[in-house]
Design brief:
The protein has 459 residues and is an alpha/beta fold. The chain has 12 helices and 23 strands. Strand 6 (86-91) and strand 7 (95-111) form a beta hairpin. Helix 6 packs across helix 12 (340-353) and helix 10 packs across helix 11.
Amino acid sequence: MKLKFFFFLLFTLSSVPNFANISLPEIFSDNMVLQRNSEVKIWGWAKPGEKIRLSTSWSNKEISTKADRNGNWQLILSTPDVRGSQEITISGYNEVKLKNVLLGEVWLVSGQSNMEWSAGAGITNAEEAIAGAENDQIRFFSVAHRTAGNPQQDLDGSWVQSTPETMKNFSAVAYFFGKKLQEELGVPVGLINSSWGGTPAEVWIPAEAIASNDSLAKAAKMLPDERWGPNEPGLLYNAMIAPLVRFKIQGVLWYQGESNTSNSDYYEQIFSTLIRSWREQWGTEFPFYYAQIAPYEYGDNFSGVEIRDAQRKVRKLPKTEMIMTSDIGNIKDIHPRNKLDVGLRFANLALADHYGKEVDNAYAPQFQKAEKEGNKVTIYFEHAEKLNFDKANKKSQFELAGENGQFHPANVKIEGNTIILKTNKVKEPKQVRFSWGNTSTSNVFNEAGLPVSSFKEEL
């Protein structure tokens, strides 16, 4: 009798297919935001050959595919501009329902501690900001700190709605950016925060992009060991960025640079490589907006301002732009507590530059070109409407140097949207620089109240 039951059980089990649960990366979950008006990729794992069907609450059309021999599958889903809570159902041998999904604008924010810094860690007017953070149209995804020697398929994190409890532990800069965007556009906003304090840019770049370039490889070897986090190229890209590259985003916000003062001469190339490599991995030239680091005492003469100048020069890449923080920083604190204005400046920039909204204070004045006539130099700027000096600090921060490379303070005259420089100590100017020091804080502003970036240029 027992033998008969054994054969019956064996036959029954052999007649049932080997079940495999459909599983999804952590980035797909309840409460997520998908990029609206787009074709987004949904992917995951299942049994090889398993048929995967996907349906949504906003469409009566079902799409399907089969898992490949390695158990991988991917579908392309159209996302219209619709409001309200949505559902996505993915079926195979099992069924997965994603609930309370929104379609809106998705932005990735990354960098080091000033991007990671939360209201709970201490910001200006923290209590007021936390108390007002209840908003189910703003969603957060926090990527857990991880390192990896090779690009990973998944990461640790979860989507949550904005509440006082969730907001206080999320990036404050990102929250203020998302809040402004949501108010102005009237659509849901999803924010993915993948940041790690104290990290140089190299750890966020694919390792092969560093290893294949002699200059970048040399620069990476100059990085000191830090107790705050890794410094080996690619370790954070592999674990905290690579798993996201198929997830559709509208753009990137970046706030980093303080941890590259040891190789500041290379930062323009390093940072440009990061932007290009991310766009290459995502397969799209999304907008990339970044914050210039604020003045701070780094214990040497110029490494901090050299980073700021390198960041200014990276603006030449398409669809990049920089927000200024020199007037809202703190030369005694590398973590300025005014995160509200940083977030708002990011939002104003995105609204004007990417979404085409009329925003009066989106762009800071930036060096455009210099022309010399004898010992007189005329500086032209972009976004230079009604240039003016800080009334409390009118001392010239402009300097000119001749053939010998010695800089001398220059007399300054503002004429419309240009600045005229002259000094009798330099008969034939060869170089010009402005606000050139680690702790130098720009004292020239445009009509929007935004400061001119420090700069150094050959003439």
